[in-house]
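Anyone able to model this chain together with zinc ion?
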Amino acid sequence: MTDHEGAWQSGGCHCGAVRFRVFVAGAKAIACNCSICAKKGMVNLIVTSEQFELIDGAASLSTYQFNTRAARHKFCKHCGIHPFSHPRSHPDGYDVNARCLDGGCDHFEVEGFDGQNWEASVASIQSPR
Ligand SMILES: [Zn+2]
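re: yes, here you go
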């Protein structure tokens, strides 16, 4: 895959109950230093609702919220893995955990995001990429 063409990639939680596919448009992902991304080891791929499809497992997903409760962090009730969220920065979109992609996330170029200073940093990920 080049930077100029996208492709649908499949992924899921650890036990396999939750399966999804996401349209990956480029080779860049985001590593965020906020309290929850740091603990999850998240590698974030932020996409629109048109670029994400939940294939299986809606009934296996639970939601974790904290602080402003704006983000809805989805996790599998069976295995505890967090495959995606509806992020505070893109409430109508998806923040996919690239670590849950079947192909892994080692091929992404990972950029830092200062989620500890979210208000000051958020514009950098809300502008078109
Ligand atoms: Zn699971």
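Residues 35-40 form the longest helix (6 residues).
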